Every structure is written in C-alpha cells, then in structure tokens.
Amino acid sequence: MRRYGKHTDEDDVRVRPNRKGNRPRTTIRPKHEDAAEGFVLTVDRGRLTVLVDDRPVVAMKARELGRKSAVVGDRVAVVGDLSGAKDTLARIVRVEERSSVLRRTADDDDPYERVVVANADQLAIVTALADPEPRPRLIDRCLVAAYDAGLEPLLVLTKSDLASAETLMESYGSLGIRYVVTSREELAEGAAARRVREQLEGRITAFVGHSGVGKTTLVNALVERQRATGHVNAVTGRGRHTTTSALALPLPEGTGWVIDTPGVRSFGLHHVDPSRVIHAFPDLEPGTEGCPRACSHDEQDCALDQWVADGHADPQRLYSLRRLLATRERREGD
Ligand SMILES: Nc1nc2c(ncn2[C@@H]2O[C@H](COP(=O)(O)OP(=O)(O)OP(=O)(O)O)[C@@H](O)[C@H]2O)c(=O)[nH]1
Ligand SMILES: [Mg+2]
Ligand SMILES: [Zn+2]
C-alpha cells in the first residue's frame, strides 16, 4: 500500500489499526462496501471463476490483496464488471474469513504449504480398491490432514467391481470413519451416486486421492456433468493426472457442493499440529490432561496408556491415534 504514496488512498489511512483507545465505528468498516459477494469455483493461472448471484464471473486478484491468495471455496468480495459477459474481468478485493483451510505440503520436509480448498467441511478420501492399488498410508495421511483442518472424513472406496473392500475396511473400522463403496455397475445405474449423495447433502465436500482412482468419474455422476476423465496406465498402474485444477460444483437440487481436485502423488504433513489431530478423538482427548507438556502421545510418560487401561476408551482407538500420528514421521511409500 505504501507505494501509492501518502495521499492517494484515504481508506487505507482510516483502516490502519489503532491498538490504543477506541476506534470509531467507521474505521473498521471495510473498503468497497458496494462489492458483491462471490464464491470461488475454480482458479486457473491467476484467473478465478467466481459465482456471483448464480452467474460465473471471471476475476483476478486486486493488487491490494498483496500476497494473499484466493482458492476454490473462498468467499470473496468482487467489484468491477460483474456481468459475466465474455472478455470481462472483475476484481477480487477481499477474501472473507475462512471456516476451514485444507493444506498440504508436497512432502513432509517441504515447508511450502499449498491451500487445497477453503471452507470445506468434509473431506472425501477417494481410494480405488484396485487399478491403482490402494495405498493405506495415503489414506492415513489424508485422515490426519482432515482432522488437522477440522474436516469430517468420508472414505470413498471405488472400483469394487475389480477387488473387494473387505481388508481395507477391517483396518479402518476401528477409526469409526463413515465410508461408501462404489462400483462401475452402480455408477451406471445411479446407485453409487445416490449412496454417496446421502453423505454430501448440505456440506461442502472436497474429493482428494491419487490420480486415476475415479474422483472425476464420481463427481460427474453426482452433478450430471461431463468433466474429462482419464485412463489408468496398464503398465504403471497410475492415472494420467487428467484433472489439472480444482473445481467446485453445486449438487443439483441440493444444498451441498462437491469439489473435484487434481490427483496427488503424496500428501505432505509438514504443517500438522498433533494437538489438533487429537480433537478427532474425543474419547481420548480428556485423557491427555495427565500427559507431559508437548507429549507426542507415543512416549513412555504418555497418560493415554493409563487412560485406556482404566477403561475410559477402547485400546484400539489409542492404537489408531498413534498410527495416524506416526504417519507424519514415516515416508509415503513405507
Ligand atoms: N472398473 C472401474 N473403473 C472405474 C470406476 N470409477 C472410475 N473408473 C475408471 O477409472 C479411470 C480414471 O477415472 P478418473 O475419474 O479420471 O480418475 P481421477 O481420480 O479423477 O483422476 P485424476 O483426475 O487424474 O486425479 C477411468 O478410466 C474411469 O472410467 C469404477 O468404479 N470401476
Ligand atoms: Mg480427475
Ligand atoms: Zn500423551
């Protein structure tokens, strides 16, 4: 802001925080009071598509946002040409406070965080039962990221026409995670979409998972839309990274949103705070009161062993918590 000089922007002067004393009401009023509200649907190389009154409007960040970025799911304030007509470009002047932020780092040593989506309240962790092979470690990592961000996890197991869901379910049963299983036949006849939809009503759900697991196929079935899907390479067993940008789509005749995201190779957890992960284990959380400061919950003096020994919680749950916390220390492919 400073580079505009002293006299150009009176608003900036007025909103500068005055920590001492009472501020008159007007000084906290945001700039651009006439701005429209928008919801970010997708971001593509600096161009954002924002839903304004049911109209998709292409916009870019106003310079005053500085380094602050807007991501899919963000609620923003937009000004300028909001007609949505071809070749128009509106400006995003404000990003509203986020109710949640789903982050990931490329790997655990990478301090560079990317925000995957904002304001989601559910994370659909999509895993194929075969083609590509399920990788439980990635599921665990996504669970940790979900708990850290305060999103409710939903496990979506696809391609049950190719392999059974049994073994995978055994290992997640004790975590008490909601799950749905889908197959090609059920996708075709609509049963898969119906079952998944029950879990999506009224929520903003981000779909994440490896490339080729069927995220876009499922989202297409849910919203009756045809976004491109890809094939899984028969030799490498990998997807082709068909989806290259996150896209939010409204559920038809519903109140929920689904967000399709590009396939990930890994889900780095550099940013995760174990104390936030434990919120997802309300049966264990009170037991941590007796823990030493900054307890990793996987050390000798951890009070949780006594907590389960005293019958306050199922020992399986402590095992699960430790497995998830340990996932941060382990490498993706282990
Ligand atoms: N057999 C079988 N194949 C499926 C099923 N669901 C999706 N597929 C296939 O899996 C392949 C990959 O599907 P996509 O929806 O493109 O996968 P994606 O997760 O969106 O992949 P990226 O966009 O690369 O991250 C396609 O050939 C789909 O037809 C299923 O239930 N059964
Ligand atoms: Mg896709
Ligand atoms: Zn502890």
From TrEMBL:
<dbReference type="GO" id="GO:0005737">
    <property type="term" value="C:cytoplasm"/>
</dbReference>
<dbReference type="InterPro" id="IPR010914">
    <property type="entry name" value="RsgA_GTPase_dom"/>
</dbReference>
<dbReference type="InterPro" id="IPR004881">
    <property type="entry name" value="Ribosome_biogen_GTPase_RsgA"/>
</dbReference>
<feature type="binding site">
    <location>
        <begin position="209"/>
        <end position="217"/>
    </location>
    <ligand>
        <name>GTP</name>
    </ligand>
</feature>
<keyword id="KW-0699">rRNA-binding</keyword>
<keyword id="KW-0378">Hydrolase</keyword>
<comment type="subunit">
    <text>Monomer. Associates with 30S ribosomal subunit, binds 16S rRNA.</text>
</comment>
<feature type="compositionally biased region" description="Basic residues">
    <location>
        <begin position="16"/>
        <end position="28"/>
    </location>
</feature>
<keyword id="KW-0862">Zinc</keyword>
<keyword id="KW-0690">Ribosome biogenesis</keyword>
<comment type="function">
    <text>One of several proteins that assist in the late maturation steps of the functional core of the 30S ribosomal subunit. Helps release RbfA from mature subunits. May play a role in the assembly of ribosomal proteins into the subunit. Circularly permuted GTPase that catalyzes slow GTP hydrolysis, GTPase activity is stimulated by the 30S ribosomal subunit.</text>
</comment>
<feature type="binding site">
    <location>
        <position position="295"/>
    </location>
    <ligand>
        <name>Zn(2+)</name>
    </ligand>
</feature>
<feature type="region of interest" description="Disordered">
    <location>
        <begin position="1"/>
        <end position="28"/>
    </location>
</feature>
<protein>
    <recommendedName>
        <fullName>Small ribosomal subunit biogenesis GTPase RsgA</fullName>
        <ecNumber>3.6.1.-</ecNumber>
    </recommendedName>
</protein>
<keyword id="KW-0342">GTP-binding</keyword>
<keyword id="KW-0479">Metal-binding</keyword>
<dbReference type="InterPro" id="IPR030378">
    <property type="entry name" value="G_CP_dom"/>
</dbReference>
<feature type="compositionally biased region" description="Basic and acidic residues">
    <location>
        <begin position="1"/>
        <end position="15"/>
    </location>
</feature>
<comment type="similarity">
    <text>Belongs to the TRAFAC class YlqF/YawG GTPase family. RsgA subfamily.</text>
</comment>
<keyword id="KW-0963">Cytoplasm</keyword>
<feature type="domain" description="CP-type G">
    <location>
        <begin position="99"/>
        <end position="267"/>
    </location>
</feature>
<feature type="binding site">
    <location>
        <position position="291"/>
    </location>
    <ligand>
        <name>Zn(2+)</name>
    </ligand>
</feature>
<feature type="binding site">
    <location>
        <begin position="158"/>
        <end position="161"/>
    </location>
    <ligand>
        <name>GTP</name>
    </ligand>
</feature>
<keyword id="KW-0694">RNA-binding</keyword>
<dbReference type="InterPro" id="IPR027417">
    <property type="entry name" value="P-loop_NTPase"/>
</dbReference>
<dbReference type="GO" id="GO:0019843">
    <property type="term" value="F:rRNA binding"/>
</dbReference>
<feature type="domain" description="EngC GTPase">
    <location>
        <begin position="118"/>
        <end position="265"/>
    </location>
</feature>
<keyword id="KW-0547">Nucleotide-binding</keyword>
<dbReference type="GO" id="GO:0042274">
    <property type="term" value="P:ribosomal small subunit biogenesis"/>
</dbReference>
<dbReference type="Pfam" id="PF03193">
    <property type="entry name" value="RsgA_GTPase"/>
</dbReference>
<feature type="binding site">
    <location>
        <position position="297"/>
    </location>
    <ligand>
        <name>Zn(2+)</name>
    </ligand>
</feature>
<feature type="binding site">
    <location>
        <position position="302"/>
    </location>
    <ligand>
        <name>Zn(2+)</name>
    </ligand>
</feature>
<dbReference type="GO" id="GO:0005525">
    <property type="term" value="F:GTP binding"/>
</dbReference>
<dbReference type="GO" id="GO:0046872">
    <property type="term" value="F:metal ion binding"/>
</dbReference>
<dbReference type="GO" id="GO:0003924">
    <property type="term" value="F:GTPase activity"/>
</dbReference>
